[in-house]
Every structure is written in structure tokens, then in C-alpha cells.
Write a structure and sequence with these properties.
The complex is a heterodimer of chains A (about 190) and B (about 775).
Chain A (H helix, E strand, L loop, with lengths): L19 E7 L2 E8 L5 H8 L18 E4 L2 E4 L12 E3 L23 H8 L9 H14 L5 H8 L10 H15 L3
Parallel strand pairs in A: 1-5
Antiparallel strand pairs in A: 1-2, 3-4, 3-5
Helix pairs in contact in A: 2-5
Chain B lengths: L5 E4 L24 H6 L14 E7 L5 E7 L1 H4 L4 E5 L9 E2 L6 E2 L5 E2 L5 E7 L2 H10 L1 E6 L23 E9 L8 E9 L11 E6 L5 E5 L4 H12 L6 E5 L15 H11 L3 E4 L2 H7 L6 E9 L5 E11 L7 H10 L9 E9 L14 H19 L3 H8 L19 H10 L27 E13 L9 E8 L2 E6 L8 H13 L2 E4 L18 H28 L6 E3 L4 E4 L10 E3 H5 L4 E7 L18 E14 L4 E12 L6 H20 L5 E2 L2 E2 L17 E8 L15 H4 L1 H13 L5 E2 L3 H4 L1
Parallel strand pairs in B: 2-15, 11-32, 13-14, 17-18, 21-22, 28-31
Antiparallel strand pairs in B: 1-31, 2-8, 3-7, 3-9, 4-8, 5-6, 10-18, 11-16, 12-13, 12-15, 16-17, 19-27, 20-21, 20-26, 23-24, 24-25, 27-28, 29-30
Classes of the chains: A alpha+beta (about 190), B alpha+beta (about 775).
């Protein structure tokens, strides 16, 4: 872990909240993060420092999954991770998801081309208000990239950490099914 | 009317939505906001920021009832990074606000009346600074005895906790012969706990001062113009200096009808001269919006031995909490729909909503109809058991139909397919017996249930409610359609809260004008009110306004084309799918068949239209009056498995028949049905704000549980399509019916499985063991 020594605290900050400078690699791009506090969550830094609002802030205590991101390929709630603890890790947020076959974090593709999961969520009706949607998209990618043809229990177990208040989950499950089918028939 | 009737099984909408272009009413085009939402680019209110932005936070009362002796904001102001602290003394305009009665202080001044009541707000350079500064404000409270039992609110000797008194509204509905009695009488007492909307996007907004004394507020709300009016009054500013813009809304379900952070953020922005963002955390969200009213209900049903309802007596007591919000309308709904979707020749309904020091209650999906549905449907089952009759037969025998008279004296003139809804719900196949799979036992993958002891039960319930506002309220909607360069632009102030109005509006414009349509961002600047995104009303009201405006544009285009071709406009026919064809053969227009948009060419056409519903009337002192525009009906059949040892319930399947008028977008309708049923599942078996002495015990998603994908039942749905003559394309609105009777059906299924007389929802494990 590389960090520079803490710069002197501004008068506003407590002793335990000294601003730091460090680097975070998000979606393949290394960002220098300045002026944050050691207690800042990865969610806060992504949203409010790096301009990546895709991870959402529905509960900020790890219960709703709307801030789901991948840290070194592991699905986590960004609200429960300290940003500084993710230094040296590969962080992938919804903004960095790329279609199957592309390099993770391929900046040219991310955001320009929808992934099959994103496409299926729109087409199957898995999106209503959309607040849970980025978290579901990341969690579904995580599931289907690990388990190409999951059974009903695996799907529900894998997505049980993501709350949705609008859809009742029916169309989200339909979206998962659509991706499984399309990938199964793919090249 | 003679409605054309059709049933649509919407369980399996097309797996792939059609492309946007070309899709008209009745198709399932993809949402225009779908792409940014799946990419994380859609700007929710909590995602907004501006240069020089400060973070606002609210200091809230920790007491359910206390006198405020003093507030010292000095220590907070002394913290570097804190720009401003505001209290009741700093509100320049009206000190109170509210949806119907302006009885709620922007900030408490002398007294706090519920846990979470705002006392002060501040703006700082960082959320963390703001958090620490809140803790530095010193408020000297003198705790007072809280009034927490709604039954005590009206007792002699109970002091008023608010200058307006403890009774927010009392309604009596007297219908027919009050002395009538039946051969068979069943009684019951029922209770419904406090449910939370639990929308995922927290209350959020960004207020930006304009440097000239005015302010722009981007906010997640259900009704921009109503918010604007209330905010402007509190700021003491004219309407044109308070401009509201819809920030992306992360769900609503009634919980965003009332103001939350709107006035606070604007005040702070105006005081500091900086943009101020406020975004609640989840615990604050639970305290910062109104909830579904807890209810206590006493029912007495009279019937003949043959099973005809003779009379229903009902007493309903709703806990409104500390402030009125929309309580007076909720209790009216509870009274009007207390007898259920049945023919009742005689009725006596007494409904009261009172003030307590519990959290304020107001709108939530179903709005008063949900609570009484649990009561009247529990009674119908009890009556069926007493009569030895099949509960479905009893309901069909008494089902309301077009032409029947409601307890309010209002005659049903539109479609009322109650029997069709019930038959459709029970016609769906029942699920097979559960096996031993990971997900199949109550309690789920914990596999705590002994399979040999699991009991299955099936229950049925039906319910109804109003569409649109009632009792004389005029909730008009205005929309503008502009046709230019082959694209229609729709301007309307509807709050898109996830329901998909943006999809419906573009479908309607496309259907009328035969071209692509885009919906402009909603605000209060360029257009009048669209009314609230509530009461299942936007498809009808704002859909109706868009339809009118689009048709006016089509007429303009037809006239211009006629002029250009030198023929009378009447000789050109506007088709139902947005084309203009020649009505007469021969001459210059012989082969004419083009879309309206093509006919418009390079010319710009624009029209603004207001949609008004038919007039409604207040209830008189006997609760009589044509209070409603129209009604939506639904029936649900629930199948549950119960573990009698641990009291755990698995909702296996919910089948429904729902009256929709007409399906405009099959995929969105199934989305409303599945989502509404999930909230009904929540109220039946898991969701309750636990209030203890006025304190909220579970303001988090750790302790307030909403259904996850593992809890979601299989849903089988049939839409009953009997187009409503006064609604655009006959479509009534579909948002609320899924929540009305799904809870009652699940409770009935639990009774059937256990033999236990379930009289309270949510059903808790200890109610069943």
C-alpha cells in the first residue's frame, strides 16, 4: 500500500480525520485522491471525489447492495469499505463494466456499449426507479461471470443482498434468465 | 355502459422489449431512461452537485414530546467549515407547512411532538463536518409525557398535543337502515402495523441560490408544483422566485408527497449564497417521511343464511402521528372503502384519525384502503366459515358490479369487474406441494423447518379504491406537445418516480403523431401542475393531457395540410395510429397516406392542453356524496407454507386478477403488479416500524426488513380489460391495486394453514406458535 504522509490537518478536521493523498485504481484508471479523511468510505470517494455516482447510497450500512462494486474481483458493498484500504486494488464500478470479451475497464467500451446484463435489465423490464439497478447489474455480472448457468437457488442466494422496492424482482429474474440463455447460445 | 371485456394474461410479457421507435400504445417499448439507469449515469437527486456546494444536515428531536427551553447553535458555528445554522427564528415566511392542513413547523420552536422532528439545520463544507456540528448544537429539552396510544387521544382528560386538537378528522358513513340486522352476525377486531414506503433513494435535493433572492431546487418528489407552493410560502417568496426541478427519484410510494428537506435546503442556500445539498441517510429517511397509518378496526357483518350481506358496521381508528399530512384524506378512504367491493344495502362506518406523539403518517400506496381491506376480508372469511360457504362463492355472490350503489350513495357508472377479478385470480393453477429444495422451506436456506410439519394454506381476498383525488379536489394536469423536425417533444410536470410515465407519455404522443417522442425534464418553470404521482392517477390525468395536446397538434397539422393541398381539412382523416389519409378519392389527395409528423414537414406545431376529471363532491355529514371519479378493483389468491414450530411463513405464490381498464404497456403493468404484491407480502409477514413509547426501534434496513428476491413469491397475473370511457385509451392506472388485497389474502392463507385466527398484520412468528 502506497500512501504519502498525511498533510497537515485543516482547522476544520479532527486529529483522527487528517486529510491524506493516495491513489485508487478504478475501472482501469488510476486516480489521485486528495483531501479525504481516513474514515471516508469507498462509496463516498467514488461518488463525491471521483465523480462516479453509479454506486448508490441507499442505506450506507451494507444491507441494500445498491453500492455494489468489485474489489479485486470480489463483490462488496462500497459503503462498508474504507477507501484507503482499497489502495492497490482493482476496483470496478458499474461505470467500468464492459461487454463479454472486452478487457475489464476498457475505457473505450465502458459506458459506450451496454453489457448483456445491462441490455437484459432494460429489455426484460428489470428497471423501474433505477436506484437499485447499478448494484443489481454489478451483482448479476459477478454471479454470471462466475457461474454461467446458475440454478434458481444460486440466483436468489446471490442476489438476496440487493434490495429492490419497485419490481418485486420478477423482471430482474427474467433479465438473469435472458442473459443465461443468450450467453448459452452465444459464440 | 357496455364495456368490452377482455382478459390479458400478463405473466409472460415479451422477453425482449421492442425498440422505442414505432412502439405505440399496447406495445412494450423499453424505458427511455433505461439506458442511463443501467449504466449508473442517471442523475438521482442524491447524485447532484454544484461548484462551491455545501452539505446540509438536520438536527432532529430525540424525544417524542418535549418542551424546548433553549437552542444554542454557537458551538456548532464555532466549528471551522460550518457556514450557517438555521432554526425556527430564521424562517422568513410561513412557519408551518402541510399538504392539506399547514400544521407542521418547518423547525420546532417551543415544543417537539415526535422523534425526528427537525429543530435546526446547518450547512458545512463536508458531510462529516456537518455531522460533528450537529452534535455540537445544544438543545435544552424538558421531556413531556408522550401521547402514544391513539385510543387515548380523544379520552377526557387527555391534553391536546397540538393547537389544532387531537382529532384530525372523524367521518361517519350512514347508509340504508341503521336498525337492519341479519340472520347471521360475525364480529372481529383487527389491527394493522405501521408500514414504511422504504423507497431506496433517500430524500435528497440540491438548492442553488440565483443571486437575486430566488432559488432553484432540484429534488426527488412526487408533486413539483405543490412542493413549490409550500416552499415559497415558507420562504416568503413569490412563486417565480422558487423554481423546482425534478431530480431523479429513487421510488416514492407516497412517502414523497410531504416536504422533507425542501425548505431546509433552500433556506440554507439563500442564507449562505452557496448551493446546498441535503441527502438523508437511511435512519434519517425512516424519521424524515410519513408512514402508512397503523389501524385498529372493529367490524360487525350481518348476512342472510343464504349469504347475502345485510349490513356492515365498522369502527376504524387510525394513528395519524404528530402532524396531519394527508391523514384527513386517508381516513376518508378508509371510511369509503371500509365495506369492501361488495353490495351492502346497509352500512354504518365510523372512522377517526387522531394525533399522537408517534411518527406522522400519511400517504402510502393503497392510501387507507389497505388497512380496511385486511378488516373486511378477514370478516368475509369469518362469515363464510359461519355460513359453511366457500369464501370465493360468498365474495362472488356479493360482488359489486356496474350500476350498484356504494355506502356513500355513489352509483358505479364505470367498469366494476369485481367478479371477473376474483374468478381470474382463482383460475390460475395452484403451485405443486413444496419439496425439500433449498428455497422451499419456510425460513429458507437456513433449513430450520421440519418438512413433515410444514402446513400449506390458500386464501383469497378482494379490494378496491379510488383513482384520482376525491371529495371535490380538482387535480388537473397540463401538458404541452411540440412537433418539430419529425420529433414530438412532451412537456409535463409529472414526477417520474419509477412508474414509467415517461414511457407512457412517449407512447401516447407516438400513437397520435406517428413519430418518435421525447419527454422533457419536469419542472415548475415552463408548465402548470400535473398533480401528484399518486392515487394511481398519472396515466389517466397526465396521459389524458398528453393525449389532448397531441390530438390538438394533429388537428393543426391536418388543417395546415388541407390548406396546402387546397382541400377542406374534413376531407383528411386522422387515423388511430398517427396517420393522415385522404377521406375522398380523386384529385390531388387521392393517394395520401402519411404520418402526422411527415405531414408537418419543417413546420413547427405546438399545443397545450389541460385534462380535468369529472367533478366530485365532498361527503356530507352522513358520509354521502359522489366523492370519487372512478375505482380500481383487484383480487388476490395467496398460497403459503407455514412452519408451525418457528412461526415462519413462506409466501409461495400470489395469483391476481386486476381491473386496469386497458393495458397500455404490458411489461410496465406486470412490473406494477409484481412490485405491489411484494409490498403486500412485506406488510403481511415482515414489515413493521416498531414504535415503543414514541421511539422508533428499527430505523434501518438491518431491522426493518423488506422482501428480498429470496422472499418474492411466484406471481401469476391476469389483467381485466374493460376500457373506462372517460380515461385515455380506457386505461385506469395500475399502481395501487396490487397492494390492496394481497396482504389480506396472505393473512387468510396463514389462517387456512394454521387454524390460528390471525387478527393482526404483519403476522409475527410469535403470533403463530
Amino acid at each position: 500500500m502506497t500512501t504519502t504522509p498525511p498533510t497537515p490537518a485543516t482547522p476544520a478536521a479532527d486529529a483522527d480525520a487528517a486529510p491524506a493523498v493516495y491513489q485508487l485504481t478504478v475501472n482501469g484508471i488510476t486516480h489521485t485522491v486528495e483531501g479525504t479523511r481516513p474514515t471516508d468510505s469507498l462509496l463516498h470517494v467514488l461518488r463525491d471525489r471521483l465523480g462516479l455516482p453509479g454506486a448508490k447510497n441507499a442505506c450506507e450500512q451494507g444491507e441494500c447492495g445498491s453500492c455494489s462494486v468489485l474489489v479485486d474481483g470480489v463483490l462488496v458493498c462500497a459503503c462498508l469499505e474504507l477507501a484507503e484500504a482499497a489502495v492497490g486494488c482493482e476496483i470496478t464500478s458499474v461505470e467500468g463494466l464492459t461487454p463479454v470479451g472486452a478487457e475489464p475497464g476498457d475505457a473505450a467500451l465502458a459506458g459506450a456499449v451496454l453489457t448483456d446484463v445491462q441490455q437484459a435489465m432494460i429489455e426484460a423490464g428489470g428497471v423501474q426507479c433505477g436506484f437499485c439497478t447499478p448494484g443489481f447489474v454489478v451483482a448479476i455480472h459477478d454471479l454470471l461471470d462466475r457461474v454461467p448457468d446458475p440454478g434458481p437457488f444460486e440466483v436468489r442466494e446471490a442476489l438476496a443482498g440487493n434490495l429492490c422496492r419497485c419490481t418485486g424482482y420478477g423482471r430482474i429474474l427474467a433479465a438473469v434468465e435472458q442473459v443465461v440463455t443468450v450467453r448459452g447460445n452465444g459464440p | 355502459m357496455t364495456p368490452t371485456s377482455a382478459s390479458t394474461d400478463v405473466q409472460a410479457p415479451p422477453a425482449r422489449g421492442e425498440a422505442t421507435s414505432g412502439a405505440r400504445v399496447g406495445d412494450s417499448p423499453i424505458r427511455p431512461d433505461g439506458t442511463p439507469k443501467v449504466q449508473g449515469r442517471f442523475a438521482f437527486a442524491s447524485d447532484l452537485e454544484a461548484d462551491g456546494m455545501l452539505w446540509g444536515r438536520t438536527l432532529r428531536s430525540p424525544h417524542p414530546h418535549a418542551r424546548i427551553r433553549s437552542v444554542d447553535v454557537g458551538p456548532a458555528l464555532a466549528i471551522a467549515g460550518v457556514s450557517c445554522v438555521v432554526t425556527a427564528d430564521d424562517v422568513p415566511g410561513a412557519s408551518t407547512y402541510g399538504l392539506i392542513s399547514r400544521d407542521q413547523p418547518v423547525f420546532a420552536r417551543d415544543v417537539v411532538r415526535f422523534v425526528g422532528e427537525p429543530v435546526a439545520a446547518l450547512a458545512a463544507d463536508h458531510p462529516d463536518t456537518a455531522r460533528r456540528a450537529l452534535a455540537a448544537i445544544v438543545v435544552d429539552y424538558e421531556p413531556l409525557d408522550p401521547l402514544v396510544d391513539p385510543a387515548r387521544a380523544t379520552s377526557t382528560g387527555t391534553p391536546s398535543i397540538h393547537p389544532d386538537g387531537n382529532v384530525i378528522r372523524h367521518i361517519r358513513v350512514e347508509h340504508g337502515d341503521p336498525a337492519a340486522t341479519g340472520d347471521v352476525v360475525v364480529e372481529g377486531v383487527y389491527e394493522v402495523g405501521m408500514q414504511d414506503q422504504a423507497f431506496l433513494g433517500p430524500e435528497s435535493g440540491l438548492a442553488v441560490p440565483d443571486g437575486q433572492g430566488g432559488v432553484d431546487l432540484w429534488v426527488a418528489t412526487q408533486w413539483l408544483h405543490e412542493d413549490r407552493d409550500q416552499v415559497a410560502a415558507c420562504l416568503g417568496l413569490p412563486h417565480d422566485q422558487v423554481r423546482l426541478h425534478l431530480g431523479g427519484v429513487g421510488g416514492a410510494f407516497g412517502g414523497r408527497e410531504d416536504l422533507s428537506m425542501q425548505v431546509h435546503a433552500c433556506l440554507l442556500a439563500l442564507r449562505t449564497g452557496h448551493p446546498v445539498k441535503m441527502s438523508y441517510l437511511r435512519d434519517e429517511s425512516f424519521l424524515g417521511h410519513v408512514h402508512r397509518h397503523p389501524a385498529r378496526m372493529r367490524y360487525r357483518h350481518h348476512a342472510t343464511v343464504a349469504g347475502d350481506l345485510v349490513k356492515i358496521e365498522a369502527e376504524v381508528l387510525l394513528d395519524g402521528g404528530a402532524y396531519a399530512s394527508s391523514s384527513s384524506a386517508v381516513v376518508s378512504n378508509a371510511a369509503r372503502f371500509a365495506c369492501g367491493p361488495y353490495r351492502v344495502p346497509n352500512a354504518l362506518v365510523d372512522a377517526t384519525v387522531v394525533r399522537t406523539n408517534n411518527p406522522p403518517c400519511g400517504a402510502m400506496r393503497g392510501f387507507g384502503a389497505v388497512q380496511v381491506c385486511f378488516g373486511h376480508e378477514s370478516q368475509m372469511d369469518k362469515l363464510a366459515a359461519r355460513l359453511g360457504m366457500d369464501p370465493v362463492e360468498l365474495r362472488l355472490r356479493n360482488a359489486l358490479a356496474t350500476g350498484d350503489v356504494l355506502p356513500t350513495g355513489q352509483r358505479l357508472t364505470g367498469a366494476a369487474p369485481v367478479a371477473d377479478c376474483i374468478r381470474a385470480a382463482v383460475a390460475h393453477p395452484l403451485p405443486p406441494a413444496s419439496g425439500d429444495g433449498w428455497l422451499e422451506r419456510p425460513g429458507g436456506a437456513g433449513r430450520t423447518a421440519d418438512v413433515s410439519r410444514v402446513r400449506r394454506g390458500v386464501g383469497v381476498a378482494a379490494g378496491f379504491k379510488n383513482v384520482m383525488y376525491s371529495e371535490g379536489f380538482e387535480d388537473d394536469s397540463e401538458a404541452r406537445v411540440r412537433l418539430t423536425g419529425g420529433v414530438a417533444t412532451v412537456t409535463c410536470a409529472v414526477a417520474e418516480v419509477g412508474q414509467g410515465f415517461v414511457t407512457i407519455a412517449s407512447q401516447i404522443a407516438r400513437t397520435v403523431l406517428g413519430c418518435d417522442a421525447v419527454v422533457e425534464p419536469a419542472d415548475t418553470v415552463g408548465i402548470d401542475s400535473a398533480g401528484s404521482s399518486s392515487a394511481s392517477r398519472q396515466t389517466w390525468m397526465s396521459g389524458g393531457a398528453v393525449l389532448r395536446a397531441a390530438r390538438q397538434v394533429a388537428d393543426q397539422v391536418r388543417s395546415a395540410l388541407g390548406e396546402r393541398l387546397g382541400v377542406a381539412p374534413e376531407s383528411l382523416t386522422l387515423t388511430d395510429d398517427g396517420r393522415i389519409v385522404a377521406a375522398v378519392a380523386g384529385g390531388a389527395v387521392d393517394a395520401l397516406d402519411i404520418t402526422v409528423a411527415e405531414a408537418a414537414g419543417d413546420q413547427v406545431f405546438e399545443s397545450t392542453a389541460v385534462h380535468r376529471h369529472r367533478r366530485t363532491y365532498p361527503l356530507d355529514e352522513r358520509g354521502q356524496g359522489d366523492a370519487d371519479v372512478s375505482f380500481v378493483f383487484a383480487a388476490h389468491r395467496a398460497v403459503v407454507d407455514v412452519d408451525p414450530d418457528l412461526g415462519l411463513v413462506r409466501v409461495v405464490q400470489v395469483a391476481t386478477g386486476q381491473d386496469v381498464g386497458r393495458v397500455l404497456h404490458p411489461m410496465q403493468v406486470i412490473g406494477q403488479i409484481e412490485g405491489g404484491i411484494a409490498q403486500g407480502v412485506g406488510l403481511a409477514v415482515m414489515e413493521e416500524m416498531v414504535i415503543d413509547g414514541g421511539l422508533v426501534r428499527n430505523p434501518s434496513f438491518t431491522d426493518y426488513l423488506i422482501p428480498t428476491v429470496a422472499d418474492a413469491p411466484e406471481v401469476l397475473a391476469t389483467c381485466i380489460e374493460q376500457p373506462e370511457p372517460e380515461a385515455p385509451f380506457g386505461a385506469k392506472g395500475a399502481g395501487e391495486p396490487p397492494t390492496i388485497s394481497s396482504t389480506a389474502a396472505i393473512a387468510a392463507a396463514i389462517r387456512a394453514a394454521t387454524g390460528i385466527d390471525v387478527t393482526r398484520v404483519p403476522v409475527r412468528p410469535w403470533d403463530l406458535v
